[in-house]
Amino acid sequence: MSVLVNPTCPIDCDSSIPSAESNECAPEWHWGEISKLYIGRADSASFTNVELLAEWTARLDDTGTEADDIRTFPGIGELPEPEQTETEMSGDRTSYSPKRFNLLFDVDETNDVNYNFLLTAGCNLKVKFWYETHDGLLYGGNDGIEGTLKATHPIPRGKRDQVLIKLSLKWDSQFDPLRCASPMA
Fold first, then answer.
1. Number of domains forming the structure of the chain
2. Containing domain of residue 117, as a range?
């Protein structure tokens, strides 16, 4: 099911449209909720093959100091519909800007190590990241997604309400992120 390359956009009106598929008897569905976030340095190396568990095993390290180490955050997140500007053009044409994505993710483990991560995120960090959905899809492809990280720590009013670390990752792209089956799922 890998989709690990962005399409080449048509350059004229004679280009064919992509294939479509549906199966009335055995449809393929996917469910919501981002359940894991993987964050590395913005200059960390790309994967040779993001679908190989051995490559992830070598890089997943929550305390390491190597340039290519990737931190893992379990939690609950979402990727709302991206913002995009629509511009009316001559000749009854319409142009669309690159998409502005904003992934929202709640980390519920608010220990001192994660709180220190929150404090460092106040430095307006650029990061490279991947995200995994609850049903085992990994988004980001070999190169990951480069974006800006923002972290906040609101404290709710109620003594029975959970305190969270709220992460926001923003990036611009013409295309949605590449996806594949997660080798960690």
1. 1
2. 34-82+97-181
**DSSP symbol at 80:** P
Contact 115, 155 (CB under 8 A): no
Strand partners, 101: 171
pLDDT 10s digits, 31-50: 999 999 999 999 999 999 99
Estimate to the nearest angstrom the gap between the alpha carbon of 174 and the chain centroid.
Answer: 14
Query: Where does residue 120 rank: exposed (0-12), middle (13-18), buried (19+ CB within 10 A)?
Result: exposed
The Cα–Cα gap between 139 and 25 comes to 27
Q: DSSP letters along 45-64, please? A: PPPS-TT-HHHHHHHB-SS-
Does residue 8 sit within a domain?
no
Residue 66 included in any domain: yes
Confirm whether 28 is domain-assigned.
no
**Amino acid sitting at position 132:** E
Would residue 176 count as lying in a domain? yes
Q: Model-level pTM?
A: 0.93
pLDDT in tens, 62-84: 999 999 999 999 999 999 999 99
